[in-house]
Write a structure and sequence with these properties.
Radius of gyration: 21 Å
Strand content: under 5%
Number of helices: 6
Helix content: over 70%
Number of strands: 0
Order of helices and strands: HHHHHH
Structural class: mainly alpha
Largest sheet: none
Shape: elongated
């Protein structure tokens, strides 16, 4: 009876992680696409204004906004790619090994990824707190608004990594691209 209860608890945690991962992935995609739209509009508007000769110099706030949006888009994009297990990997080095060895290597890699993301989350939060008093030159925003992209993306990737581990451990086949 206890084994069945543990199995159902593990399945419930796996379903919860899957739902959280899906919702967070959708939010990251929407935020990333919104940032691309804002970035495109501001850069295009600046080019048009300069082409028409209305201003001869670019606006400093556009450069700063573009830089900040690009940083956020990069980290959010990494979370989306992380959920789909689409990061670059060298599969041929492991694919020819026996199944047991591949399993050990996979577990070691997953543990290493989780450790790295936990360090990134902790150190990213530390840097974010340290930069709260610094402001950006043009927009006057706290620099922590930019640096918080590190712990946010690390937290999202931790959820995706935990989901992948739970899904992989289930007996049924799973698709990392779902």
């Amino acid at each position: 009876m206890t084994g069945a209860r543990n199995t159902s608890l593990i399945a419930a945690v796996g379903r919860g992680l899957d739902l959280a991962s899906r919702v967070l992935d959708l939010a990251a995609q929407i935020a990333g696409l919104s940032m691309i739209a804002v970035l495109t509009a501001t850069l295009f508007g600046t080019v048009v204004i300069r082409y028409l000769g209305l201003f001869t110099q670019s606006f400093a706030w556009v450069d700063e906004t573009s830089r900040f949006l690009f940083i956020w888009m990069s980290f959010l994009g990494a979370t989306v790619v992380s959920r789909r297990a689409s990061h670059i990997r060298i599969g041929f080095a492991v694919d020819g090994l026996p199944e047991r060895v591949r399993t050990v290597i996979t577990i070691a890699v997953e543990a290493g990824v989780i450790f790295f993301l936990a360090v990134l989350l902790a150190q990213g939060w530390f840097v974010t707190r340290q930069t709260w008093v610094q402001t950006s030159p043009s927009l006057g925003l706290p620099m922590s608004y930019v640096y918080v992209s590190l712990p946010v993306s690390a937290a999202l990737m931790l959820v995706h990594a935990a989901r992948a581990i739970f899904m992989r451990r289930r007996e049924e086949q799973w698709d990392p691209h779902s």
